[in-house]
Amino acid sequence: MLIKRAFDIPSSELTSETLYRNRREFIKTASAALGFAAVGTIASACAPGTVGAAAEPQAKGKYDTTEKLTPLEDVTMFNNYYEFGTGKDDPARNSKNFKPKPWTVKVEGLTKKPATYNFEDLVKGLTVEDRIYRMRCVEAWSMVIPWQGFPLADLIKKLEPMPSAKFVEFRTLVDKNQFPGQRGLFQPLDWPYIEGLRMDEAMNPLAFIATGLYGKSLPNQNGAPLRLVTPWKYGFKGVKAIVNIRFSETQPVNSWQRQAANEYGFYANVNPEVQHPRWSQAREQRIGEFLKRQTLMFNGYTEQVASMYSGLDLKKNF
Length: 318
What we know:
Blueprint (H helix, E strand, L loop, with lengths): L16 H6 L1 H11 L37 H6 L12 H5 L9 E6 L5 E4 H5 L5 E8 L4 E11 H8 L7 E6 L21 E5 H5 L4 E6 L2 E2 L9 E3 L12 E7 L6 H5 L23 E4 L6 E2 L7 H4 L13
Parallel strand pairs: 1-10, 4-11
Antiparallel strand pairs: 1-2, 3-4, 4-7, 5-6, 5-10, 7-8, 7-9, 11-12
């Protein structure tokens, strides 16, 4: 039997958004055959967009929310991705010529398998999953996005970090030719964009490496070809276009933490009790909805993640 890999499939064969919404089981079946999803910050697409129909998920997986999906147009047309520009529509407009393949990722630090891997070797043997996560942006916007990819824990197990590794750090690509936002005299951030997780956070079943959304390869503006998703944290944790993974004993200093430590901490857990210096986090606006809703602790994933922070002052360690 011929088994196609996701990056070999032309766009004409990809499941349409309509089919995705009505037949999510098709993707689950196809994903099992494919074996993995292929070709992927600051925050996720978390800005107001056009209001369109948003379908109810037709099947509930172990990690899914059953809330209405955010329309594909909003997910792909309104993004925070400063490498392509600081405007919400800059990423979609400025990423058309970005080349997500061929792609390599350097793995280093406290690991038994340090190397520079091409994309295909890095994800080989990792089984694709599709998950519907609610995503919360620090600016008080939120979305519900159907992702495809694989658990971060599966990738970490494959890379065999040493017992002394307490943190995992991710870095994005630096390429002024492909990223117009990295050019110019005055830069909004120091490049590369850096994010990190404690090892127990990275191994949590919710932590996810996205390679696609809505049944399609991950668009350039959403972080192709590899993008971190941690749905209980604010969107700026979702480092995109990952080219470096480092295991370390010490906590990394993340890009926004370096830029404005009084506003952005290492943990970035969604906590309505911690007010951003310039706005409240107590309520959020789901894109496509008129009224705001109450922000949930850990973005509604308390049952899955709260135990990791037992005894930690989440107002101080924000």
